[in-house]
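Lab notebook, bench 4. Still working through the backlog of constructs that have no structural model yet. Next entry is a single chain of 200 residues. Request: give me the structure tokens for it.
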Amino acid sequence: TTRPGQEFMSNNDCCFLFLTERCNLACAHCYVNATPSRGSDMNLETAQSALDLFGRLDIFDLRLTGGEPTIHPHFGSIIELAAHRGFSIGLVSNGQRLIWRERDTDVFERLSRCWISVYGTTPEAHSTVAGYGSRPLWEIVNRVGALAGAGYPVGISVLVRPAELGGLIDFVAKIAVAGVKRLRFLPLQNDGRGTTLPDA
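Model written out:
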């Protein structure tokens, strides 16, 4: 029998769980307008209910995002719950905390993939968009390369503005030298704070 809603689904379906509206950065492009002081966190009971619902719908491809999901007060518990229930867990993070804390390597062992965001293809573009508090571009890239070399499913997700398209080949070459094995490009979205960010 088909459960309500399943007739619209396929084997490629995934579910996104926005754990928090808050972020430890306040990037100039943010489409959800996240900041360290704005917004609330999903409570643990709601997260559990969401996982229950996804399971009933036979959707086990889970993507955790936000805001910055790793600052959620129950982030570790939600990862444990999802892993215990058999979800394939993806994570989108700015990595400012996660990729430098040795005790968080057990989180990576539960992930099927993890995308660490950078905000441009040059140090200048990255620091302009990410603003105060972000680690430098190549420091992030080199750390992700080291984690990838250790066998963790970590990659780089890079925000690209039209003016940066000409430098992509050089950027990809540098990413490869750093040991990064997974790379994806995301175009600037013209919503949230991105409406005020120039293309250049």
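Notes after review: The first helix runs from residue 44 to 56. DSSP finds six helices and six strands in the chain. Flag for follow-up if needed.
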